[in-house]
Amino acid sequence: MTVTPHQGKGQCPVVGCRANLLATCPDKLQLRSPPGHGPVVACKSGCQAFGTDELCCRNYYHSPQTCRSSTYSQFFKHACPATFTYAHDSPSLMRKCSSPRELKVIFCH
């Protein structure tokens, strides 16, 4: 999925990922349907899979100093470098983009 802002002010990058994450999703992050034995239908984040404060960057881990990347967020970052993979991630695409008049969302490439 990619999101492309149009007619915004400043630098407005395309954000998203073209990788097939279902094919390489770590076992612990896989969502299968039917549960347990069906095909992989989604690849959950570490936060969604485990719900810990550390992986969800909440409570003590709510600041840029304590919220860090994990092996799970690194899986997504490796596959999709131009995305945010945890709460305080700051990918190289960080730019100032304001007031786009339109967002073009592409779900499949």
UniProtKB/TrEMBL annotation:
Keywords: Disulfide bond. SMART domains: THN. It holds the Pfam family Thaumatin. The keyword Disulfide bond applies. It comes from the Eukaryota. Disulfide bonds join 12-97, 17-80, 25-43, 47-56, 57-67. Belongs to the thaumatin family. This is Osmotin-like protein.
